[in-house]
Amino acid sequence: MDAAMSERPRAAGILAIIVFLEAVAVLGVAIWSVVTVIGGEAREVTAGLFWGACLVGLSFFLLQAGRGVLDGRSWSRAAVVVWQVLQLGISFGTFNGAEGPVPLALAMFVPALAALIIVFRKPTREWLARERQEKLDGDAG
Question: Which pTM value belongs to this model?
Answer without folding.
Answer: 0.85
